[in-house]
Amino acid sequence: MTLEAGRRVRLTEDLGLGEAVAGDPGVAVGFLSLGAGAEGTVERVDGELPEGEEVREYQRLKALFDDYGHTMPAASRERLTEQLAALEPAWAAHRERGSLVTVRVRLDNGFVLDGLHQDVLAAL
I need a labelling partner for 103 at 20 to 30 A (CA). Which of 41, 52, 112, 118 fits? Predict the structure, then answer.
């Protein structure tokens, strides 16, 4: 998923933010978390890497295989599988680099999450 500033997103997982402390310092009385489903707007994307030609081709071929692979003749399906295998290293490298992408999101409830990994967000 490619995130950009201004895009609406939703948390896909519960996020633990920390302990709630009351009275004596160091006495935890609860835990603060944001529930999955909280929505907000992306304010900034850090570390975004452009997709290369091989990555775009892998995504195109993978979508083709997933949608129509079961209806293809055996020879075509085998050739497509070979093409995907050849592009797999570029895809894996892109996914690994993509893990460095973080975002700043202002949630509708007023919370601001900065340095949030993009994998816990879904675009609306």
Answer: 52
Identify whether the C-beta of residue 36 lies closer than 8 Å to the C-beta of residue 13.
yes
Q: Which of 43, 40, 38 is nearest to 4 (CA)?
A: 43
Cβ neighbours, 10 Å, residue 113 = 20
Q: Per this entry, what is the length of the chain?
A: 124
* Secondary structure class of 90 (helix, strand, coil): helix
C-alpha torsion angle, residues 100, 106, 107, 113 (rounded to 10): 40
pLDDT in tens, 33-54: 889 999 999 999 887 666 788 8
Q: What is the 3-state secondary structure (H, E, C) of 94-111?
A: HHHHHCCCEEEEEECCCC
- For 54, other C-beta atoms within 10 Å of its C-beta total 16
Q: Which of 105, 115, 119, 117 is nearest to 38 (CA)?
A: 105
Is the CB of residue 117 less than 8 Å from the CB of residue 100?
no
8 A C-beta contact, residue 116 and residue 101: no
